[in-house]
Amino acid sequence: MRRAVKLAVLLALFLIPVAVLVVQPPVAVSNSYVEVVPPDTAVVGFTFTNLGLRQVCITSVSAPQGTHAEMHVTEFNGTLAVMKTVDKVCVGPLSAVRFGSLTYHIMLTGDVNAVRNGAVIQLRLDDGRVVEVRAPPGTGAHIHTP
Fold first, then answer.
1. How many angstroms separate the Cα of 10 from the Cα of each of 5, 13, 24, 28, 142?
2. Which Gene3D superfamilies match (predicted)?
3. Cα–Cα distance, 64 to 111 (Å, whole number)
4. Cα–chain center distance at 37
5. Where are the domains of the chain?
6. How far is CA 81 from CA 9, 47, 70, 77, 145, in A?
7. pLDDT (tens digit, 9 = 90+) per residue, 40-72?
8. CA 26, CA 38: separation in Å to the nearest integer?
9. Contact at 8 Å (CB) between 111 and 67?
10. What is the number of helices (H) and of strands (E) in the chain?
11. Rounded to an integer, what distance in angstroms lies between the CA atom of residue 102 and that of residue 142?
12. How many whole angstroms separate alpha carbon 105 and alpha carbon 96?
């Protein structure tokens, strides 16, 4: 009986963390920044890391008051770069996706002067969680051509 209880406890101690990694994978956001691109846009970049054992998708993003946010991806066709709106960005298990200038990014429009000193955006995940991204001012490395 005692052995069965010990085995049950050990099994539970193993299964609970595994279940968490599968049901609600841990995620992390790092290296965030916001850059204002005059006259009326700003870009938010960061690294989104999925530390879990199943895919996690970012399905929407909220913008600071006075601005509007969209998820974009930059695609290249020869020498032409085009930004396209995307509905979601999925990150595989134990993987990371970099949001930045020439890849996926969050584009802010509207009163971007409100985010000149930093921005807070919220990412909504496919499992309902909301992840806050605090983005300090960037370094001016964003590439944007009309």
1. 9, 5, 21, 28, 51
2. PCu(A)C copper chaperone (2.60.40.1890)
3. 9
4. 20
5. 26-135
6. 56, 22, 18, 6, 9
7. 899 999 999 999 999 999 999 999 888 999 999
8. 36
9. yes
10. 1, 10
11. 8
12. 14
What's the CATH class of domain 26-135? mainly beta
Sign of the torsion angle spanned by Cα atoms 134, 139, 141, 146: positive
Q: Are 45 and 33 in contact (CB under 8 A)?
A: yes
The pTM of this model reads 0.81
73-114: pLDDT as tens digits = 998 888 888 889 999 999 999 999 999 988 899 999 999 988
Compute the distance between CA of residue 146 and CA of residue 144 in angstroms, rounded to an integer: 7
Quick one: CA dihedral 121, 126, 130, 133, positive or negative? Answer: negative
